[in-house]
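Quarterly update from the structural biology core.
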Amino acid sequence: MLQRIQTVYLIIVVMLCAFQCFLPIGQFVAPDTVYSWEFASLLNPETGESVYSTWAMAVLQVVMGVIALVTIFLYKKRVLQMRLSIVNMVLMVGFYLLYGYYYWLICHHIEKLMYSVTVGMAFPLISLILTIMAFRGIFKDEALVRSLDRLR
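Predicted structure, tokenized:
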């Protein structure tokens, strides 16, 4: 299981999904305060209260990590691994679409904002690249097994 490179890629994807749960996504700077976009909500750091809820992004992030973790342990079912990897890639692209939607909503909710992205926002992109690399490794393994079945 761990001797395959795609397993290492998927473990890194799981770790990145877990790390993103604890890192802020970005910061909105308004004339009077700075809002921090955390894992599941936009927070006002002065009062600690949630200004806007982004729970769908948090759920999507957790689901992406769980799918990557489940994919690791299905190493005997390579076709299912490939399908789950494709689902995970679609969810990662959906994460950025949902991010854009929430960004648009927040900008319309609070006027005169400047936005800065933190390093946590790059984690889904890195996870997407690693999932594509894992998919290619799984596909190569499946092609090798099928080629050996033809020789028998």
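The first helix runs from residue 5 to 20.
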